[in-house]
Design a protein that fits this description.
This protein has 425 residues and is α/β, with parallel strands linked by helices. 27% of the residues lie in helices and 25% in strands. About 2% of the residues have low confidence.
Length: 425
């Protein structure tokens, strides 16, 4: 459920008219619903009732400070993958004690920053990283809280570019190597082993890969503890899918996911559980609003050319992702539809959001909204073609605020510097 609904024939975000926001801030723009973020976080938390997990929101899904602060007030922690994301979480009011630092390529400087800011745990993904972390921790006179991300070699059955739990993926340490690496870590002066982590991918729509991965996690923990290495903390990752396309086939509910977790880890309710959802919380809490610039007929094809482009929303170009596209002004019942290729103005054939998408008749000046754009939308935007990325707006009941302004051309050009030999005397 989200809070982007038609009211009196006009699309609203909670109690705010989308067209009114467009008039105020211009298009394209992202719009987020506070109520939807709050609902999705609460529903996920309730689905894991009985385990009392620390829910560390995956900042990479949507790192806007207003979004992070909204979730922080609900008690969320943060799962971060860079010093920049760590700094964003801190700035939004999430303390280091509720921050998990993940990622395959943490630098020594980033590891030092995390330790200096009381990081909850560092999910180590390789032996070279373990060595670097121990060195940094010893130099700082501290012990680093470590959870190893173990790759269970489980196929999540998702798009190959968002799969993370197979042996061929770059993430984590190999399952068969884990006992040896844990034993080594237990002897290192700068390391304090606190847990285990598994995360097998994103946009999972089948619960069986979770069951398989968690079963392997439990078996490994039992083996480690039999060898004398305590594992009090279980980071079970994220990845539960969301409904991008409105069909009868819906992803599993958080309650169903929670049932699998409780079944696999039965008897372990007294351990610490952590989760790292991102897309599930953010995706359907945001839309991208754009305006039609031109409608172009080219032979049999009809193109709707928008002022949003792949620099604003790259998921269709990168992942062949589907986003429902709806008119901001609700069409009357029985309104005929036509097939449109919905595209942006960038000079790339890949700047295509949808092909042969059935929509009511569109004309220049019409507003459309891309649903389910709250995750991996604005956060992956760029300035390709020297286009200012879409600004971000957040709504709470009948109010809206600019959460990230649109860059001006002067902002973008002002970051470049001319070398001395090109400056006129």
């Amino acid at each position: 459920m989200d809070h982007f609904l038609y009211r009196d024939g006009r699309l609203h975000a909670e109690d705010v008219d989308i067209a009114a926001i467009a008039s105020d801030v211009g298009t394209p723009f992202y719009c987020y619903s506070t109520a939807t973020f709050e609902r999705h976080f609460t529903v996920f938390r309730d689905g894991l009732k009985g385990l009392d997990p620390l829910i560390c929101y995956a900042v990479k899904a949507n790192s806007n400070l207003a979004v992070l602060a909204t979730l922080a007030r609900l008690g969320a922690g943060a799962d971060v993958v860079s010093e920049g994301e760590f700094r964003r979480a801190l700035a939004a009011g999430i303390p280091g004690e509720r921050i998990i630092f993940s990622g395959v390529g943490k630098t020594k400087a980033e590891l030092a920053f995390a330790l200096a800011n009381d990081v909850r745990q560092i999910n180590v993904e390789s032996e070279p990283e373990l060595d670097a972390l121990s060195e940094v921790a010893v130099s700082m006179g501290v012990r680093a809280p470590v959870s190893f991300r173990v790759n269970p070699d489980v196929d999540a059955k998702t798009h190959e570019k968002i799969s993370t739990g197979k042996a061929e993926n770059k993430f984590g340490i190999a399952y068969e190597d884990a006992p040896r690496i844990y034993a080594r870590a237990a002897t290192m002066p700068g390391i304090d082993v606190v847990g285990i982590d598994m995360h097998i991918g994103s946009q999972l729509t089948d619960l069986e890969p979770f069951r398989e991965a968690y079963t392997r996690m439990r078996e490994l923990v039992e083996r480690l503890e039999a060898s004398g290495i305590a594992i009090p903390r279980l980071d079970i990752g994220g990845g539960l899918g969301v409904p991008y396309e409105r069909t009868n086939e819906m992803p599993p509910l958080p309650t169903d996911y929670g049932t699998v977790v409780r079944e696999v880890f039965a008897g372990w309710e007294d351990r610490e559980f952590e989760c790292e959802p991102g897309r599930l919380i953010a995706a359907n809490a945001g839309i991208l609003v754009a305006q039609v610039i031109y409608v172009k007929q080219a032979g049999e094809r009809r193109f709707a050319i928008l002022d949003a482009a792949m620099n604003d929303l790259i998921r269709p170009a990168l992942y062949d992702a589907y986003h429902e596209i709806v008119p901001v002004i609700e069409p009357a019942p029985g309104t005929p539809t036509y097939e449109y290729d919905v595209v942006g103005p960038i000079c790339e054939s890949g700047d295509t959001f949808a092909k042969a998408r059935k929509l009511p008749e569109l004309k220049a000046g019409d507003l459309v909204a891309f649903r389910s754009a709250g995750a991996y939308g604005a956060v992956m935007s760029s300035e390709y073609n020297t286009r200012p990325p879409a600004p971000e707006v957040i709504v709470k009941r009948d109010e809206f605020a600019l959460a990230r302004p649109r860059l001006t051309y002067d902002d973008m050009l002002g970051r470049d510097e001319m070398p001395d030999w090109l400056n006129p005397e």
